[in-house]
């Protein structure tokens, strides 16, 4: 299994180029088309019409945002020049969430950045990354805003719950895990659930081994707290020296309101290595 296309979200932040370089590594490894999708914060036009000289401010803002977009496009061309894969630049104008979702659904892998609340240049829209994870239907690789991640993963921690979301994430990540070592971790809360349909970690290891991926397994208990489970995942990732975490994303949209599962929310806030999430 390989990816045929890798799409990376770009914006005006410096971390966007770091994401692009990492996405290029994945594209090269899979001989996949690399697509840069540019989307940045766009203020609502209705705000401007509350101001005097609205037309002038609108035109000035358009020129400013076009200039930033063109500068990022130039950096994209420079960074991808000479890559031995097909590359493509796309830019959306309008609602960044809806328009990136529309583009992302054709990609095999979507690469985005963790939200950095201390860096205003990285803000695109409220719940931007969370919406892409829950609504795109594609595996989403979230890259932390801190740290350097420039190589393909060699040691992968698979967070296993036995259910649909983790199964989806596992199989979405198989192209990434080719040639890597995997550690499958199942965390049982203090209130255990006994469902006949839950797939065991042993079955997961068997599925990975059948694809030539060496896998070890671990089952451990944890306090019945989403935060504690998220912290344990990160602790085990450090113990295993993992350079990627694979996990199912839990949550749903309710009347345009995102409701994320607690473990998913914890990892998105405190990740220390890239995390591949599928919903």
Summarize the structure.
The chain has nine helices and twelve strands. With about 280 residues, the chain is an alpha/beta fold.
Ordered list of secondary-structure elements with their pairings:
Blueprint: E1 5-10, H1 15-30, E2 33-38, H2 45-48, H3 54-80, E3 87-91, H4 96-104, E4 109-113, H5 128-135, E5 140-143, E6 155-160, H6 164-177, E7 181-189, H7 201-209, E8 214-222, H8 226-239, E9 244-248, E10 251-254, E11 257-260, H9 262-270, E12 275-278
Structure write-up:
Belongs to the universal stress protein A family. Pfam families: Usp. By secondary structure, the protein is of the alpha/beta class. It folds into 2 domains: 5-143, Rossmann fold (3-Layer(aba) Sandwich); 155-277, HUPs (Rossmann fold). It contains 9 helices and 12 strands. β1 (5-10), α1 (15-30) and β2 form a beta-alpha-beta unit. α4 runs parallel beside α5. The longest helix is centred in the N-terminal third of the chain and has 27 residues, at 54-80. It is globular. The two termini are 20 Å apart. The relative contact order is 0.14.
């Amino acid at each position: 299994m390989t990816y045929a296309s890798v799409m990376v979200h770009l914006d005006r932040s410096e971390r966007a180029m770091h994401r692009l370089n990492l996405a290029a590594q994945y594209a090269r490894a899979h001989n996949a088309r690399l697509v840069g999708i540019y989307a940045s914060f766009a203020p609502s036009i209705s705000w401007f019409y509350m101001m005097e000289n609205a037309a002038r401010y609108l035109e000035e803002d358009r020129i400013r945002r076009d200039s930033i977009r063109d500068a990022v496009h130039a950096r994209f061309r420079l960074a991808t020049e000479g890559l031995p894969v097909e590359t493509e630049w796309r830019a959306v104008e309008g609602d960044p969430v809806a328009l990136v979702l529309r583009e992302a659904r054709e990609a095999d892998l979507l690469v985005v950045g963790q939200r950095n609340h201390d860096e205003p240049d990285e803000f695109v829209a409220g719940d931007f990354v969370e919406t892409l994870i829950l609504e795109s239907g594609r595996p989403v690789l979230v890259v932390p805003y801190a740290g350097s991640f420039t190589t393909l993963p060699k040691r992968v921690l698979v967070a296993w719950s036995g259910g649909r979301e983790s199964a989806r994430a596992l199989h979405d990540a198989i192209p990434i895990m080719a040639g890597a070592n995997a550690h499958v971790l199942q965390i049982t809360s203090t209130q255990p659930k006994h469902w006949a349909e839950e797939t065991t970690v042993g079955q997961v290891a068997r599925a990975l081994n059948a694809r030539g991926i060496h896998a070890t397994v671990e089952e451990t208990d944890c306090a019945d707290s989403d935060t504690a489970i998220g912290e344990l995942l990160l602790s085990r990732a450090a113990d295993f020296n993992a350079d990627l975490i694979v996990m199912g994303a839990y949550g749903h949209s309710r009347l345009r309101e995102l409701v994320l599962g607690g473990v998913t929310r914890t990892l998105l806030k405190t990740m220390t290595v890239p995390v591949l999430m599928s919903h």
